[in-house]
Specification:
CATH superfamily: ApbE-like domains
Strand content: 25-35%
Number of strands: 20
CATH topology: T-fold
CATH class: Alpha Beta
Radius of gyration: 19 Å
Number of domains: 1
Helix content: 25-40%
Length: about 325
């Protein structure tokens, strides 16, 4: 689960020009990260109601909370879930299918074996990994209405879409209650509502994956979500001197190393952004570009380990001076 406070998208500007009234703001802790909600022409009570939507989603889909629906599914091998959880699982499985398994909700036991769910880091043996991979296959999950069945030995984690989904649902709630300008920062997973009150776009910085004191670039977005996945989010250095990060390749059961070190996705749907940022990281640049050409309903900025930033042409991207990356805009 992408769960650190700083992922790799930082808000550059939350204020409006021209003397607009200050926004209502609310900070809180959920989904293992600090979240910051800011909205114009809104009350703190309204933001608190949007926060409660996020907290309810966390209560239902947490893998570690013993009262959650996902915990019960993993413990019992299936069961009945709420319509909302069933809808989220359906969204997650749809992303598993469309990405060909580069995003897979059943990778959870592998991630746990590496210690990323407990902070007790270790490098599992190839035999152990191979045994765990026998239970990694999203296509074997059965969903019928609100009833879910998991094969023996399989456990799932919706953390790869939960924050994006939560941001989407919270933003939709605020829109229904009249908010036309706002920004929800769910631990670096960014959801915007409209533009800033002066009509300009929200400016979101993408962190340099090789230097956490710098930005790699700035993107401008309006009424969209922006989510970044990077190996720097959570990692450890093992006794062998190698660095291992938490983004696992479902094909190997080991940290994904296919040339992409940061993947940012911008789209209307935060849940889609959440899942795709992971999937594109796993795919690598060549497959990610091919995927984008076949599914041009999102924009992306990929940072590669050979010093390139690949940007889709629909994205307003501003390089940061002095950052050692060569920006290449993909052909439409």
């Amino acid at each position: 689960m992408k769960r650190l406070c700083v992922i790799c998208a930082l808000i550059l500007s939350l204020t409006a020009c021209g003397g607009s009234a200050a926004p209502a703001k609310l900070d809180f802790f959920a989904m293992d990260t600090v979240m910051e909600f800011s909205a114009y022409k809104a009350s703190e009570n309204l933001l608190a109601e949007a926060r409660d939507i996020v907290m309810d989603i966390e209560r239902r889909v947490s893998t570690t909370r013993e009262t959650s629906e996902i915990y019960a599914l993993n413990r019992d091998g299936g069961g009945t879930v709420s319509p909302e959880t069933a809808a989220l699982l359906d969204t997650a499985l749809s992303m598993c299918r469309v990405t060909g398994g580069a995003f897979d909700v059943s990778i959870y036991p592998v991630v746990r074996a590496w210690g990323f769910t407990t902070d007790e880091y270790r490098v599992p043996s190839y035999d152990e990994t191979a045994a765990l991979l026998e239970h990694v296959d999203y296509a074997r999950i059965r969903v019928s209405g609100d009833a879910v069945t998991l094969p023996d030995g399989m456990e799932i984690d919706l953390g790869g879409v939960a924050k994006g989904y939560a941001g989407r649902e919270a933003a939709a709630y605020l829109r229904r209650h009249g908010v036309t300008s706002g920004l929800l920062n769910l631990g670096g997973n960014v959801q915007t509502i409209g533009s800033k009150p002066d009509g300009t776009a929200w400016r979101v910085a993408i962190r340099d994956p090789n230097d956490d004191t710098h930005y790699a670039g700035i993107v401008e977005i309006r009424d969209k979500a922006a989510v970044t996945s990077g190996g720097y989010e959570r990692y450890f250095t093992a006794d062998d001197g190698q660095t291992y990060w938490h983004i696992m390749d479902p094909a190997t059961g080991r940290p994904a190393r296919n040339g992409v070190i940061s993947a940012t996705v911008i789209a209307d749907d935060g849940a889609l952004c959440d899942a795709l940022s992971t999937a594109l990281f796993v795919m690598g640049a060549e497959k990610a570009e091919r995927f984008w050409r076949n599914h041009p309903d999102f924009d992306m900025a990929l940072i590669t380990d050979d010093g390139e930033i690949l940007v889709t042409p629909g994205l307003t991207y501003e390089p940061v001076e002095g950052v050692p990356y060569a920006v290449r805009t993909l052909e439409a």
